Amino acid sequence: MTRRTRIAVKVAVWTACLTPLALLGWRAVSDDLTANPIDFITDWLGRWTMRLLLASLALTPVRILTGWGWPIAFRRLLGLFAFFHGTLHFGVWIVVDHYFAWARMGEDILKRPYITVGVTALVLMVPLALTSTAGMIRRLGGRNWNRLHRLVYVTAVLAVLHFMWLAKTGRIEQYLYALIVAVVLGVRVAAAARRMVARSSPRGPRTGPPDPRTLGEVEGTSASPRTRGAPRAID
Amino acid sequence: MLIRHAPRYRSSEITPEAVYLSRRAFMAGAAALTLLPGEADAAPPPPVDRLPPLKAAPHPTYRHTDPVTKIESAVTYNNFYEFGVDKEDPSRNAGTLRPRPWNVVVEGLVRKPKTFDIDELLKIAPLEERIYSLRCVEGWSMIIPWIGVPLSALLKRVEPTGNAKYVEFYTLVDPEQMPAQKKGLFSWSSLDWPYVEGLRLDEAQHPLTLLTAGMYGRVLPNQNGAPVRVVIPWKYGFKSAKSIVKIRLVADEPKTAWNKAQPNEYGFYSNVNPTVPHPRWSQATERRIGEFRRRETKMFNGYGEVASLYSGMDLKKFI
Ligand code: HEM
User: Do A36 and B87 touch (CB under 8 A)?
Assistant: First the structure.
């Protein structure tokens, strides 16, 4: 990829990630937030948290299935944007929806399972966001960093549960997200299973230390020959 | 979904006919491209400022101290699954409903069963305007000026027999008029049609229970349950059946639509009760549409006079 293409792709991804908030802002100024704006904004931010999270999780399966390595470079960025929207989603709940009614919110977090899993999903993203800098990756070492960042799978599953448990009867969108999570995690599991089979065969492809170029990826995915030459991070 | 914008009503807005018609054609075209069940045939209902006025005497005591909700909110934020599951769906899709001519069959355990033409039905007692609070089970509320007659007047007319203990309300089933009643892929359907709701006979006879044909000084908009619905202000909104075609008096507790869909979440009584949470969320507070801060939800939605209907009943059990 040339330098110019890389810059163009980067601009496109940033633009895409900022579009949901821009659209929300546009709807706000054009008085188009429905009769219940607080609910509308909460739902909007929740849905985009989910979509950005799934987008970040989809890049590894894309590479496994197609061999395209370059999108992986955007995984951290998408994850951070997901966290950003999740924080706004939570912030609206605290500040606008409940207006700092701490006792009520505490009760909701403890008693209402959809809130409990939502908060857990977001809290689990905090260490991931804090360790998302290049410096932290170096400090932790690729292997530990990878291990820690597997927490995002738990976040994805909890986020789906959150949606399933809050969705009213008759809606179907939540099942679509559940399906996508199942696919993006399922592809990883299948790839890992294939690797284990390959490794246990006498002519396994490799047993050396993890490839430093694939830092920030699921441990061992680099064993797949298609993924050789993963890109440098450009985010 | 392609149609994201409900037709929005501003109080200042008077829609010229040409604009209204071209918008309608556009919506129909856009709808034809969607894949969701029924959406292709949907059309937006007429703007409320074009609906015929309905004259009624303000009820002397059934008023409300809180300000009335803006009409544009009340006609664009609706739960009416026959037109789709999203709140903006009814105001986008309910144009296919034909509220005239319309008959309502009143039958079952009554001495004088009768099929009423809608306009005849509304003459059984003088029309009254009553300002009620509407509390949705989802945790929001509105203050709405309804127009109607006490349901008790109709019940008296048909003379329930001694065996009649409950009243059932049936909403229209007609996928041509109610596009979201069409089955989707894998014959998916949001609810089991017809939408059936019910009350105990004494609840139905309570003076607060209103057989409703209008709101905000006009006939009911399609998306709010035209041409006739009930309003039971001390119960969660879904108990107030819309676009009613049949009222039956029966001996046994009716199997109601939401109760059938989610028995552990939606009980037969469904009285507004801040101390009994919905299994998934709290009912202690509500957001009044148009307001910023939540309000405390009141027992029976503030209509304490109905408490005597439930004396001796454990309302944590009879939800
Ligand atoms: C990773 C974290 C999270 C994700 C991915 C997420 C996602 C979502 C999604 C997809 C929706 C549904 C939007 C719709 O109905 O269209 C939603 C709604 C909601 N979420 Fe979250 N959420 C997260 C965390 C949280 C947290 C921390 C809270 C607050 C405690 C929260 C509270 C809510 C509430 C109150 C709703 C609206 C429920 C309703 O409409 O009745 N969520 N969220």
Answer: yes
Average pLDDT for chain A: 87
Asked if A48 and A16 touch (Cβ cutoff 8 Å), the reply is no
For the CA of A53, the closest atom of ligand 1 is 5
Write the DSSP assignment of A90-123 as a string of letters: HHIIIIIISTT-HHHHHHHHHH-HHHHHHHHHHH
| From B73, B138, B284, residue closest to A35, measured CB to CB | B73
pLDDT in tens, A89-139: 999 999 999 999 999 999 999 999 999 999 999 999 999 999 999 999 999
Ligand 1 atom nearest residue A119's Cα: 27
How far apart are alpha carbons B64 and B56 in whole angstroms? 17
Distance from CA of B142 to the nearest CA of A (A): 10
Please determine, for residue B28, whether its predicted confidence score (pLDDT) is greater than 70.
no
The pLDDT of residue B40: 58
Q: CA dist B15 to A60, A167, B74, B98, B312, Å? A: 52, 35, 18, 21, 54
Q: Is the CB of A56 under 6 A from ligand 1?
A: no
End-to-end alpha carbon distance in chain A: 15
Work out the angle between the directed axes of helices A37-66 and A3-29 (0-180°, nearest 10): 160
Measure the N-to-C terminal CA separation of chain B; round to a whole number of Å: 35
**What is the arithmetic mean of pLDDT over B212-239?**
97
How far apart are the C-alpha atoms of A100 and A94, rounded to whole Å? 6
Going by their DSSP bridges, the two strands B114-117 and B103-108 should be labelled as antiparallel
Domain chopping of chain A, boundaries: 36-206+213-233
Cα of A22 to nearest chain B Cα, Å: 16
Amino acid at B52: P
Q: What is the ipTM of this complex?
A: 0.82
Q: Which of A162, A176, A180 to mutate for ligand 1's pocket (most ligand atoms within 8 Å of CB)?
A: A162
Q: Would you call B8 an interface residue with chain A, using a CB distance cutoff of 8 Å?
A: yes
Q: CA-CA distance, B30 to A202, in Å (whole number)?
A: 60
Q: How many CB atoms lie within 10 A of CB A170?
A: 18
Angle between helix A173-200 and A37-66 (nearest 10): 30
For a pocket test of ligand 1, which of A39, A43, A53 has the largest count of ligand atoms closer than 8 A to its C-beta? A43
pLDDT digit string (tens) for B292-304?
999 999 999 999 9
- Whether the per-residue pLDDT at B113 is higher than 70: the answer is yes
Q: Does domain B11-310 have CATH number 3.40.50.720?
A: no
Q: How far is B85 from chain A (nearest CA, A)?
A: 7
> Can you give the pLDDT at residue A69?
85
What phi, psi does A64 have (nearest 5°)? -60, -40
